Amino acid sequence: MATYKDAGVNIEATDAMVEDIVTYSNKTSRPGQISNIGGFAGIFDLKKCGYSDPLLVTSTDGVGTKILLGIETGLLDGLGFDLVGMCLNDTVCHGADPLFFLDYYASSKIDKSSFLEIVRSIALACKESGCLLIGGETAEMPGVYRSNDFDLAGFCVGAVERQGLLPQKDNMNEGDVLIGVTSSGFHSNGYSLVRKVLKDKSCDLNGKTPFDSNWKTLGEAVMEPTKLYHSILKPFVEKNIIKGMAHITGGGIIGNVPRMLPDNLGADINKSFLPKNNLFDWFQDLASMKKQDMFNTFNCGMGMILIIDNKEKKNFFELVNGDKDFFEIGSLTSSSQSNYCSIS
């Protein structure tokens, strides 16, 4: 007599991990939480969050082929930060506070140790961002995934008062200042290219970085987790200083900055204002890439770019209080061309 287990799917083993997941989830509690993981769906009480006129802001994303490097290097504990960061960094661009997060993990056969390591990192990232890990789903799909391969996807919901929604396109003007906020590395974009170049150039991921850095190995450098921006930027959002934010993901700086701009304004970025970044400089040389292609593909050291009023610049940098993660990198300019972003 055939069973589901005979086909490679072990429901009992997967169900047994729920208690471990609940332990991690409970550490992410926040107002609005109704119950623990284990039901058919997550339930959240928005009324308990104290909003007057809220808009819900949602995002979904995955980690992409960075997972394959994680498997190759054994560095899995940062993938949860990548997953949460790629979703929450999108919602923060609209001024939203994260409410809750769900994850989806699929593999040929779930390895308990690796799975719980990743779920733990998801919970830690949620906790750092004040976000509830409300639920998730696991799936064993032998035949779809091979051997140790797996995939991750995430889904988050945030909220913002209607009057605080970003970007404030109608309030943007020529001369507004562009502020860059440093990234932690490649984040979770461009890894099909990163992996190809590393393989073609026979790079030793276990060896020391071929550039000055604080990373112990090249593998750690290319696997550095995505930076979480909500807690960093929340004070400025609350003071209504920021007019717009762009999360620099797929499409790089040039592809993402215009997404927060009105049609009559463009962005002029002075590349001499961008901070020197040894990781990206090394990769550009290794891949023999043109600088423009780098800007079209990667964050190049700027994971977020903000717009503030020129009159607020002094106040902004006083609030930053010497934090070297913030840089003035350019300004808005009048433009007859929509989606205009120039780096020169």
Summarize the structure.
This protein is α+β, with helices and mostly antiparallel strands. It is built from twelve helices and ten strands.
Descriptive overview:
- 31% of the residues lie in helices and 22% in strands.
- The chain has a six-stranded mixed sheet. A four-stranded mixed sheet has the order 1-4-2-3.
- It is built from twelve helices and ten strands.
- It folds into two domains: 5-164, PurM-like, N-terminal domain (60s Ribosomal Protein L30, Chain: A); 169-343, PurM-like C-terminal domain (Phosphoribosyl-aminoimidazole Synthetase, Chain A, domain 2, Alpha-Beta Complex), CATH 3.90.650.
- α2 (18-26) packs parallel to α5 (112-128) and α4 (79-91) runs parallel beside α5.
- The chain is of the alpha+beta class.
- The mean pLDDT is 92.
List the keywords.
2 domains, six-stranded mixed sheet, 10 strands, 60s Ribosomal Protein L30, Chain: A, alpha+beta, globular, Phosphoribosyl-aminoimidazole Synthetase, Chain A, domain 2, 31% helix, 344 residues, 12 helices
Form type: globular
CATH architecture of the largest domain: Alpha-Beta Complex
User: How many helices in DSSP terms?
Assistant: 12
Q: Which regions are unreliable across 5 or more consecutive residues at pLDDT < 50?
A: none
Q: Give the overall pLDDT as a whole number.
A: 92
Top CATH class of the largest domain: Alpha Beta
Q: Please give the alpha-carbon distance between the first and last residues.
A: 69 Å
Overall SS class: alpha+beta
From the alpha carbons, calculate the radius of gyration and give it in angstroms. 21 Å
- Give the strand content: 15-25%
Number of structural domains:
2
CATH topology group of the largest domain: Phosphoribosyl-aminoimidazole Synthetase, Chain A, domain 2
Order of helices and strands: HHEHHEHEEEHHHEHEHHEHEE
Q: How many β-strand stretches?
A: 10
Largest sheet: 6 strands, mixed
Numbering strands along the chain, what is their spatial order in the largest sheet?
6-8-5-9-7-10
Q: CATH superfamily assignment of the largest domain?
A: PurM-like C-terminal domain
Helix content: 25-40%
